[in-house]
Predict the 3D structure of the following.
Amino acid sequence: MILTLTINPAIDRIVNVDKLVFEDRAYILDQAEAAGGRGINASQVIHGFGGKTRALLSCGGPAGKRMMKSLAGMGFPHDAVQVAAESRINFTISDKQGLTVKLNEVGATLNGEEVQAVRKLVETRISDARWLMICGSIQPGVPAHLYCELIRLAQSRRVKVLLDTDGDALQHALEARPTVISPNQHEAERLLGRALITRSHFMEAVERMRAMGPEAVILSLRSRGAIGSAPEGVFEALPPRIDVLCPIGAGDALAAAFVWSMDRGKSFAESLRWGVAAGTAMASLPGVKFPTLQQTRAIYKQVEVRPLAA
């Protein structure tokens, strides 16, 4: 079982338009909405690959009810902590050329009892898991050290943790030494307090981040693939060139496929290859659509993984 936690999920409203141009009109071609958030997205990928997953989340208000209805049709088990505040709604606007704008609400504050209920839910379900994926942002007012506490809980049950978050939540959680962190370039820049531009910057960044506590680091670089550092070594995964239709969610697919592969006993380098393949496959699809195992395998065959000198 791969357990995912999305404490700050959302209804993802996806709008496809003919073009995105400043100071000109765009025409809506189609639109849809579905339950979203990094952990829910990860569970969708894992489930689509035939893996066993359960999604944990919080939800509230009318948007929360729509979220639960959407989750019911996704085919994998899920548990939600009902909260008083309305769940957020995020907007993704994408055109035919792959230009994409994503607008996220911050999310409403949870009270202390609700945060404690989330902790209790994770504690209840973690005994069935081999991996816990802690994904996404936390709401305002939620203690920044919450993820740190959950990582230590997982470690006490010998459950491995992939952490995919940003800002203070990431900074605090590193104290607990998660198994893997998977920041994208912008998140890594915020964590390290510097711009990352060149390949040598990326290589230095993964080593610096790994020195901050996690056992392994995956730095997601969108069309440039990813660089990963682990006890086995430092590796670069290079994807084939594709026509990018929508890059939103590609990092979620990367993290999910990586954990799916690791859970099947594959090496770090092999799992990095699967992750980059899934992220690339997702970016090649219109809107926010999750790749199938067949689509990912076709890309996987074209992903090059090579060791780098540390």
Observations:
- The mean pLDDT is 94.
- The longest helix spans residues 268-283.
- DSSP finds ten helices and 14 strands in the chain.
- The two ends are 33 Å apart (CA to CA).
